[in-house]
Target: S-fimbrillin
Amino acid sequence: MKMKSLCLAMALIGATCQYVNAADGTLKFKGEVVNSSCTVNGMNNQELDVAMGKIPLSKLTQDFKGPEVGVTITITGCEEGDYYLVLDGTSATEANKVNVLALDDADAPGTAQNVGIILTDRNDNPVTLDQPLNKDNDPVVHVTSANGGGTFYLKASYYAWGQAANIKSGIADATARFTVIQQ
Model:
């Protein structure tokens, strides 16, 4: 009898339970496949070299910033549209400001210490690292005709942080990956 009562109770509970739904929705992926395949001029094995030069340690310990070096990324063979430049790279998390690109092999002997690279657009607005496309902040090239192109103009400079005694000379190479996105 107890078993029949238990089975009956379970059946009633199962029949009266309601599905609880916190929230649901739909993901709609929107985009377009286009023929555009811009070419980046001046690349060697998918790389553009930027010669930062040799900066005296005394310059970095006084001003905490080295001279600006122009960086140009020229795209050609593009379809009409707006093209944005997005940069990714390892951030120097110990720096006292955001968007400082860390040096390659930062902890290796012979690498400069407490030094990174900052990038700005030609209006001195910081270029963000490791962020999704931001049409309000990312550098943009407007291509107005088929098979057109343009140039992204940036500035790079060494940036130092911390106490002057902790800024050390050495190799100061850094790597940033860039993506050109058409919108």
About this structure: The longest strand covers residues 148-160.
